[in-house]
Amino acid sequence: MPVIKNVFYKDVDTIFGSHPVTRKLNTLTNNNAVARAVKNLILTNKGERPYQPFLGSDVNAMLFELNDGTVEGELQDAIENCIANYEPRAELLSVYVDQNVDAYSVGVDITFRVVNQVEPITINLILERVR
What is the three-class DSSP state of 126? Predict the structure, then answer.
């Protein structure tokens, strides 16, 4: 029987809070670390990070497109490509985009599985236009 190497992912929490006793920065591990990384990746615009001009998904720019019925498909493709290209720790299962025209927002449900993990993780995002 093959032995699967136990993989451990650890990222610094973006809130930058410190532990009250040890005074070390809080960290996120395994599923929480990858879920936060996917969320940050989706909300990052291309050209926003220095020295990485192609990193991100540009979903915020797509929110200002005309509502011609193709925006949901374009958003879904952009999210799928972004995760496939820039987050090797996540195995994408599905992306569901639902446009709410009355509230000027888009709901996004991203379901993925962390590499070497069994249970899927779902992230729910509500993207709104902000001027």
Answer: strand
Question: Which residues make Cβ contacts (< 8 Å) with residue 80, sequence separation at least 6?
Answer: 92, 95
101-122 pLDDT, tens digit each: 777 788 999 999 988 888 899 9
Mean pLDDT of 89-100: 91
- What type of residue sits at position 95? V
Q: Which long-range contacts (CB under 8 A, 24 or more apart) does 87-93 make?
A: 87/34, 87/37, 87/38, 87/41, 88/115, 89/9, 89/34, 89/37, 89/114, 89/115, 90/34, 90/37, 90/38, 90/114, 90/115, 91/115, 93/120
- How many other β-carbons are positioned within 10 Å of the β-carbon of residue 45? 13
The model's pTM? 0.82
Residue 29: the pLDDT is 75
CB atoms within 10 A of CB 11: 16
Cβ pair 110, 126 in contact under 8 A: no
